[in-house]
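Q: What residues go here?
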């Protein structure tokens, strides 16, 4: 359906042109419910369809971003130091977004495979990290492909940054029973689901090495947590 934009006149466009913004979007949601954004609800009224973040990477209006990119970069640096990806290694990046973390692993010389549900984020990631392999869909739906793609590598590492719901049950079971990741870096925005997932991982041979909280949401009770795990060789 078309969207009425008579209210968005030339004067509004001129005022926007004076501001330091790239695009002005209108979102229309056809129904009520818990889902904030409808996948076909975005309408660009002015400017360009993509913007650049502080890393110089492009993103669209529905792509998830961390609020404090400098602090996010620190967490990625810590994850990279722990995972220590080397040329010849493979990093599986689950819930990879539009490619910020993928570039970190590629810069270390490793191969990287990202999985992301958002089509817009995948399109941006293909532009932002062209050397990475991208799979669109739920991580749980891509496990058979990941198993095949990871098979040739001697050293496989895992970076996950799931939503508040944590790792999908099928992903957690895969990590415990099928895919033997040497090391895992888990960036979580929910202490509750993080605890649940860590209990399961630790019951199946993984050991927590480091836990670091990050205040990504200042003056709120939300805390982002980076957990670094290693599989017990015994």
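A:
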């Amino acid at each position: 359906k078309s969207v009425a934009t008579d209210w968005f006149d030339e004067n509004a466009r001129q005022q926007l042109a004076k501001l330091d913004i790239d695009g002005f979007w209108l979102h229309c949601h056809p129904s009520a419910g818990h889902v904030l954004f409808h996948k076909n609800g975005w309408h660009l009224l002015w400017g360009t369809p993509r913007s650049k973040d502080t890393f110089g990477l492009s993103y669209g209006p529905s792509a998830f971003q961390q609020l404090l990119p400098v602090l996010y970069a620190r967490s990625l640096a810590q994850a990279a130091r722990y995972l220590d990806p080397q040329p010849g290694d493979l990093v599986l990046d689950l819930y990879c977004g539009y490619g910020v973390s993928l570039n970190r692993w590629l810069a270390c010389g490793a191969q990287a495979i990202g999985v992301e549900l958002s089509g817009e984020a995948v399109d941006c990631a293909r532009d932002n990290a062209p050397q990475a392999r991208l799979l669109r869909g739920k991580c749980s739906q891509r496990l058979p492909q990941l198993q095949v793609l990871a098979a040739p590598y001697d050293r496989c590492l895992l970076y996950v940054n799931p939503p508040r719901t944590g790792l999908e049950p099928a992903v957690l079971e895969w990590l415990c029973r099928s895919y033997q990741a040497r090391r895992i870096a888990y960036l979580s925005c929910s202490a509750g689901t993080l605890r649940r997932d860590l209990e399961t991982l630790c019951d199946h041979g993984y050991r927590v090495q480091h836990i670091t909280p990050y205040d990504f949401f200042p003056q709120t009770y939300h805390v982002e947590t980076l957990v670094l795990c290693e599989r017990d060789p015994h």
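A: Context that may help when evaluating the design: The first strand starts at residue 23 and ends at 27. The chain has a mean pLDDT of 91.
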